[in-house]
Structures are given as structure tokens and as C-alpha cells.
Input
Amino acid sequence: MRTNKPSNSIKLVGVMLAAAVTLAACSSSSSSTSTTAGSSSGTTSGGSSNSEVAKAQAFVKKYEQVPTGIPTTTPLKTKPPTGKTIVFMHCTDVSQCTDIGTGLQAATAAVGWTLKQIDYQSANPATLVSALQQGLQYHPVAAILTGLPSAAWASELAAYQKAGVPIIEGYTADPLGNGIIANVGGTPYTTLVGQIIANWVIADSNGKANIVSYQVPDFPVLAAFDKGFTDTINSGCSACKITVVTGTIAQATSGQGPSQIVSALQRDPSAGYVVTDDATWIDGLPSALSAAGLHVKVAGESGDVQALTAVKSGTESAFTGLATIPGAWTMLDAALRYVEGMPVPAEDAQLPVQLLTAGVPFTVSNSYNLPSNYQELWKALWKV
Output
């Protein structure tokens, strides 16, 4: 999805903005590949050491457990005032944004607030700028947006700061500041998920994995997954190999990911694993693999209905769920605390995370909605 160095994120955003008008015309032929080998230390008989595999197994076991709580435990000082408005910038071309909107609708209703949802397209950052301009017309107490970094809409930061309207982000690589008061599911969370999937690959392959990694670098936050995954493989699997295949937003959201991956596997038939930084990029991959006569194990983050159904059936192997709906409640919590003059939790209020495999019971859903009583836990903190 992205390069292995998150320091390149701003450069990538600049490229994305310059090329936004042409993204939709991209084809799978524009994909590129590169190869990263594991470190040479700690090998035994040409493979990874037993200690590397044992360490990965212990890491995986920890994240197979079902989470039992929400990230915040401090209650609000008082019950929130009713009648406030929140605006949400809804990216229509990424399915997780719809789930976030669903979560925000329920969360704002719980406290008697109004949600205004304004559509934009991730592949066309100019539409987000327009959406943000429209958002101020509703006189909101806060604005929520996800995915695209502030470099894509920096022209609107001053207007929001002048209006006294904070911005709450989700799933971006942006730091706090300049009016951004929270970032749910940002770099620390996404890095952790990359480490979880890498350790699963090491453990599952007994430290001998040849991996195709499908990346979409136009979403800089996903660079944290790629870095967490790649760094863990390089430092913890001396006999592993990674081949990177990149796609644009337009390619990934239009379903071209599977064909790009199949092409990479045909170039290197020895590859036994495919890893993606977002399951939605590879919807339909099991059918494409079957048609090409290819057999690999598939893993990644943000498992959706198709990916998790495939895990249940055995045609894909391991995904983490993405708590888009519970995460929306975490985003609203930041707005509630801001309104009450309370400290807002640190940059990355940790989302619940679990590794989902055929050996772990789980419910198939686009949103990872655990713990099951998360709404009641939030309402108790909010005194509603």
C-alpha cells in the first residue's frame, strides 16, 4: 500500500494531490514491485531460528484474546448539553467510512446531538476541501474526518481554528495540533496491527515465508501498517522475503487489487503468502487465485465481510478486525470532552484489536464490534 518509510508520507500526499484528476484513469499496469529480504542474523540450517518462531507464537497468542474494555475509563464531569451539532466528512469510495457514519449516528443520538454527514471522494481531495467549507455552515462543535491527511485539506485549517471548531481525525498519520485534537486509529494502532500480522506469518510459516505485500501508499496512515509489518519481518524472520506491490486509490477502490496480486504471484510462483493493509483492496481475491491455479495464504488488517467469510471457509487465513463503529464512539468522546473543557485522550486512543483466524471464534462483520457492551460502557462514562 505504501512505502516502508513513513517519512515519505508528505511527499506521497503531494504526488497524490498533483495526480488526483488522473487517478480514476489508472490501470493495473501501473503497479510496481520491489523486494525486501529478511536480515541475515540468527539463521539455522538456512532458515529462521527457533527463538524467532517462538517469539512470534507468543506475540500472536496475546492478540487472539477477546478485548473486554473500551480505551477510556474517566467519566465526563457532567452529562453533555443537548442540541449540539457534529459534522462528519463521509468518504463515499471507501466502505469503512459508511460504518463510521453508522457509529456516529448512534453515538450522537445517545447524547442528544445532531449529525450532519457531508460526502466526498478520497480519490479527489478537492471534494474534501469543499465538504469542509460546507461543514462550517452548520456551526458544529466539532468536525470528524478520516483517511486523508491534513496535507490534502490544509487550506481549511485556519477557517476551522478561527471558528473555534476542533477537528477529530480517524485513521490518519497526522500529529495533533493546528486544530486537530484527536486521532483515533492512527499511527500507533496501525503499526501494532502490522506487527500482529507479521508475527502470525512468521509463526504460521515456521519462519520461512515468501510474502507478496499489497500496499496503497496514497493513504499515508497505512504506511504505519506496512512499516510495522516489514520491520517485524526483517528483524524477526531471517529467512523471510517480502515483495511489495503498490496500487493507487483508484485501482484499489475499483477492484483491481486481485489482478495486480495474481500478476505478482505468477512472476514469483514460490510466494506462499499475500498480506494487505486493507482487506477491502482484495475483495474477490480467492476467486482470482482459484482461476489462476494459485494457492497461497492471505492475511492483513481491516477484515471485512468478504475477507472474514473467506477465513471461516479456509480460503483466506488471518485478519484483524477494524472497529469502525465502536471507533466512532471514541471519536465522539473526544468532542464531548472538548466541549466540557476536559483533557482529550492522547493522540491514538487505542481501538480494540484481535487476530481473527479459523481457530478463533468470531462474528463476520465489516466492523469489529467488541466488546459487545461497548455502547453501555460509553454511555456510563457520558452519564446518559
